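Figure 6 in text form: structure in, sequence out.
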């Protein structure tokens, strides 16, 4: 199951045995936040049951709270969900990761990193930052 923007979905269309879920922008309304997190849960649950790998794609700025409380809640919620699921899936060697992306990350680079994070034997329970604006900054 691939739920990403069209450019990334096209590049990952060959994947049939993984969940790749890209968080949509939400406003600060709890109904929208809860709906986005529920959609991620519904997409991920079959993968957890069947032992299939998962990658969540979130905005690096959202992880830092720079794009509003709603987006921060979704991004950090998905990060927490990935780390929790990774603990459960680690025994079977199934990777579950989060890719934090900056606004300028080209779809081809995002897709390439998604594929790397889905590989068995690679990292699991990790957040990989790709072109985020936090590089070289001391964050409060």
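Output sequence:
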């Amino acid at each position: 199951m691939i739920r990403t923007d069209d450019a990334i979905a096209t590049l990952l269309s060959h994947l049939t045995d993984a969940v790749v879920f890209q968080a949509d922008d939400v406003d600060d309304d709890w109904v929208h936040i809860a709906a986005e997190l529920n959609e991620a849960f519904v997409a991920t649950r079959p993968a957890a049951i069947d032992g299939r790998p998962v990658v969540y794609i979130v905005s690096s700025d959202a992880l830092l709270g720079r794009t509003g409380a709603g987006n921060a809640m979704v991004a950090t919620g998905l990060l927490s969900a990935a780390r929790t699921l990774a603990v459960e899936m680690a025994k079977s060697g199934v990777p579950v990761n989060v890719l934090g992306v900056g606004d300028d990350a080209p779809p081809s680079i995002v897709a390439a990193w998604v594929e790397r994070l889905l590989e068995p034997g690679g990292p699991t329970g990790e957040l990989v930052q790709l072109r985020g604006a936090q590089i070289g900054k001391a964050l409060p």
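Caption detail: The chain has a mean pLDDT of 90.
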